[in-house]
Design a protein that fits this description.
By secondary structure, the protein is mainly alpha-helical. It contains 13 helices and two strands.
Length: about 270
């Protein structure tokens, strides 16, 4: 029987935007700024960038290469490389299975906020009681979770080229524009601190300049561990995701150049969010 030809991304840009769409998300926009604030800003940023350029690049390249070499899903790709590594495929299958439900819930929250703003009810959405009222409602959280899940299903059902790649080409540039606008807006927001007016510009020095004063080995180790955990979370490493994406990557696409572009896009979004 003739083997059915596997679909693929149309080219490097399609693969990069789709893979970046998987990597960029909660880890960049919510978790990265939180950890940066917790770990002193500039020091955490420096450690994270070093890890991303070394450890992160190596792992991303390895996973995408395994996918492209085997042309199989994470469940069977490792076994094809080496029969003794087949058990890794089961872990790579289980992790996204566990992650997906809570992403659907949070995706539902995003749709709720978006629909509220599109209905010109922005003031209602920023009210302190809005979120609490929404998640304690009996049916609304379930409804919006189902809507988000259905949208994901439709996009995946359309396939690699006409689904994931097509929508990534629209949504990823839109995300970059939105996050840039929010960052610029946030920098010039004025707040009152004990009667003194401050702006976000003053925080840029803390965020971009590492402070080594009073740094102990224990504190540095904690920063490294947080940065490493963030790296795995943000770049979708060790979840089988990049193996799956790599399996739809054309042989002629430059692998290392594509991984560089994914890392740059992912890190830039995280830094802007911070």
């Amino acid at each position: 029987m003739e083997e059915k030809k596997r679909n693929s991304f149309t080219g490097q840009i399609g693969f990069v935007l789709a893979a970046a769409g998987s990597a960029v998300g909660l880890g960049n926009i919510w978790r990265f700024p939180t950890l940066a604030a917790k770990n002193g800003g500039g020091l955490f940023l420096l450690v994270y960038i070093i890890l991303a350029l070394t450890f992160g690049f190596a792992l991303l390249t390895t996973e995408a290469a395994i996918g492209r070499k085997t042309q199989q899903s994470p469940l069977t790709a490792y076994k094809k490389i080496n029969k003794g590594f087949g058990f890794i495929g089961y872990f790579a299958y289980i992790v996204p299975f566990i992650i997906y439900p809570y992403y659907c819930v949070i995706g539902g929250w995003v749709i709720k906020y978006m629909s509220t703003y599109l209905a010109f009810q922005g003031k209602a959405a920023v009210a302190p009681s809005f979120f609490g009222g929404f998640i304690t409602n009996q049916w609304q959280p379930i409804l919006y979770t189902v809507i988000f899940t259905a949208l994901c299903f439709i996009i995946v059902y359309k396939g690699v080229e006409h689904g994931i790649e097509k929508y990534s080409r629209i949504l990823m540039p839109a995300l970059a524009i939105l996050i840039s606008f929010i960052a610029i807006y946030s920098i010039f927001l004025k707040t009152s601190d004990n009667g003194e007016i401050r702006t976000g510009v003053e925080g840029l020095a803390v965020y971009f300049i590492p402070n080594f004063e009073g740094l102990t080995f224990g504190k540095f180790l904690r920063v490294c561990l947080d940065a490493m955990g963030q790296l795995f979370y943000s770049l979708s490493i060790a979840m089988g995701i990049m193996v799956a994406y790599g399996s739809y990557m054309k042989k002629e696409v430059n692998l290392s150049k594509s991984i560089n572009q994914i890392e740059i896009f992912d890190t830039v979004i995280a830094v802007i969010a911070g």
